[in-house]
Structure formats: structure tokens, C-alpha cells
């Protein structure tokens, strides 16, 4: 298991690697996919009175993943994603709007799972999960739709980030969040700076997040980001144009009746 006490060691995650990883791994394919699900069209499932499935957010049993939509949906889509992944950002921009139309029917739920390619992913994921569960995917999408300025903030402070790597683990991620502008980025989106610092100083919780992420990624043999699974089966798609036909083949319809 990767430890937060060593994840920022220069030999493990250099600044060059941290910045190159999203480009190098973002669209990494995986040949070990499962046979696609095939099914008849599934009728829409009504949301509880006074609610919508798009507003329904729950946490996974282990407490580390977040699920948007009907938690009992017959089709369960999961994305394993890195916050510094360019292909993940592209999916957030070009795929999420279409996916939400399917989630709204109650037939599909969408689970977000963290994958850590570098130290910045750890900081961003910690901040995205710092507040209420219903804000996690919203804040993650904010990062992906603003990935260029987020990366610019990281690139502008490489010396300060290197120095932060020498700090005690309870100070390390706080300092990285400060010098990269990530604390300010999240503060502008409703997460107070004090709350952000408290979450980034909680090394035990971050350790658990990293260990859980590693375990879950290994369970489905994640080889690159994004990786999608449907009902636990890895699918051969990294973008919406390939993913939507897979969902439809399994029985999803955005206008299900």
C-alpha cells in the first residue's frame, strides 16, 4: 500500500512526474475488459416524492466513494478517475451532461472513485471530500472543468511544493494546498480555508483515503484513467461517445418510460 508518509518522497513523485502523469496516463487503455452487458430497455424508476435522482447522493459502504442517483439502480456505473487527468477532465465536460440524463431516470447510478497519479491528486481529493458528500462530485467537476488554471497554479510554485515535501506529514499537504492556490480555489467554491486546512492536516484520514483508493483500483485492475465499470465489469470506453452505446446496450434509455 502507498503511504501518505512517503507519497511525496522526491524519488516517488517528482514534480516533473506529477505534471507529466496526467498527459502520459490519462488516456491509457486497458485490454482486460469484460463482456458487455446486454439487456432489454429498462423503464424509468420514479424518485421518492419531493426528490430527484440527480439530487440524490449517497456514500458507498466503505465511506470513501460517492454515488449520484438511485442507489438501487439496476445499472451501476463507476468511474475511477484522477483529478489531474486530462481525459477525465474531458469526460467531465463532454460526457457528464449526457450521463445526467440517464441518471435522472433512476435506471443508472454513478459512482466516483479516486485514483492517485501524483501528490496533487491527494490534495485535491482530500479537499473535494472535505465537505458534505453531496458536494464531492460537484467540486470534482469544478476542478476538471477548470483543469488548465489548476495545473497553472501547480506549475507556478514548484520550488515551494518541493520545500513542502520536507515538512512533517501533518503540515505537508496544508502547505501544498496553500502554495498551489488549491485552498483558495476551493474557498471560492464554498469550502472555507480553515476547514480545508483541517482536512489537509488529518494525515490519518488521508492515509485511509490513499489505501482505500489503491485497494479499489487493484480490485478492478485499473491501468489508466478514466476507467469505467458497469455492474462491476470493466468496459472498453474512456469517453462518452464510446460509453453511451454500452449503457444503451445494457438497457438504459435517457427518455425511459
Please, could you describe this protein's structure?
The protein is an alpha+beta fold and about 260 residues long. The chain has a single domain, classed as Glutaredoxin (3-Layer(aba) Sandwich), CATH 3.40.30. The protein is built from 12 helices and 6 strands. A 6-stranded mixed beta sheet has the order 1-2-4-3-5-6, with helices on both faces. Helix 2 packs across helix 5 and helix 8 crosses helix 10. The N terminus is likely disordered.
Write the CATH architecture name: 3-Layer(aba) Sandwich
The level 1 CATH classification is: Alpha Beta
Instruction: For the record, give the distance between the C-alpha atoms at the N and C termini, rounded to a whole number.
Output: 46 Å
Give the total of beta strands. Answer: 6
Query: Structural class of the secondary elements?
Result: alpha+beta
Key features?
single chain; about 260 residues; alpha+beta; Glutaredoxin; six-stranded mixed beta sheet; about 45% helix; disordered N terminus
Q: In a few lines, what is going on in this structure?
A:
By secondary structure, this protein is of the alpha+beta class.
Mind sketching the topology for me?
Blueprint: H1 15-25, E1 57-59, E2 66-68, E3 75-81, H2 86-94, H3 96-103, E4 108-114, H4 119-128, H5 133-145, H6 147-155, H7 158-164, H8 169-179, H9 182-187, H10 193-200, H11 203-219, E5 227-230, E6 233-234, H12 240-249
Parallel strand pairs: 3-4
Antiparallel strand pairs: 1-2, 2-4, 3-5, 5-6
Helix pairs in contact: 2-5, 4-8, 8-10
Amino acid at each position: 500500500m502507498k503511504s501518505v508518509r512517503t507519497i511525496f518522497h522526491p524519488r516517488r513523485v517528482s514534480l516533473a512526474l506529477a505534471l507529466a502523469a496526467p498527459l502520459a496516463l490519462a488516456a491509457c487503455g486497458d485490454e482486460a475488459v469484460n463482456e458487455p452487458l446486454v439487456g432489454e430497455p429498462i423503464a424509468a424508476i420514479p424518485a421518492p416524492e419531493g426528490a430527484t435522482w440527480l439530487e440524490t447522493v449517497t456514500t458507498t459502504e466503505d465511506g470513501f466513494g460517492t454515488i449520484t442517483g438511485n442507489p438501487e439502480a439496476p445499472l451501476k456505473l463507476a468511474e475511477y478517475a484522477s483529478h489531474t487527468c486530462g481525459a477525465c477532465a474531458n469526460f467531465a465536460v463532454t460526457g457528464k451532461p449526457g450521463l445526467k440524463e440517464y441518471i435522472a431516470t433512476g435506471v443508472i447510478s454513478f459512482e466516483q472513485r479516486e485514483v492517485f497519479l501524483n501528490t496533487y491528486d491527494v490534495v485535491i481529493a482530500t479537499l473535494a471530500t472535505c465537505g458534505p458528500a453531496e458536494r464531492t462530485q460537484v467540486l470534482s467537476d469544478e476542478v476538471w472543468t477548470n483543469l488548465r488554471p489548476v495545473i497553472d497554479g501547480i506549475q507556478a510554485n514548484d520550488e515551494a511544493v518541493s520545500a513542502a515535501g520536507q515538512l512533517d506529514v501533518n503540515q505537508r499537504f496544508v502547505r501544498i494546498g496553500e502554495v498551489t492556490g488549491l485552498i483558495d480555489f476551493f474557498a471560492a467554491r464554498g469550502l472555507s480555508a480553515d476547514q480545508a486546512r483541517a482536512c489537509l492536516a488529518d494525515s490519518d484520514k488521508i492515509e485511509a483515503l490513499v489505501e482505500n483508493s489503491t485497494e479499489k483500483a487493484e480490485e478492478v485492475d485499473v491501468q489508466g484513467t478514466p476507467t469505467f465499470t458497469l455492474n462491476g465489469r470493466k468496459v472498453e470506453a474512456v469517453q462518452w461517445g464510446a460509453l453511451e452505446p454500452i449503457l444503451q446496450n445494457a438497457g438504459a434509455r435517457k427518455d425511459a418510460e
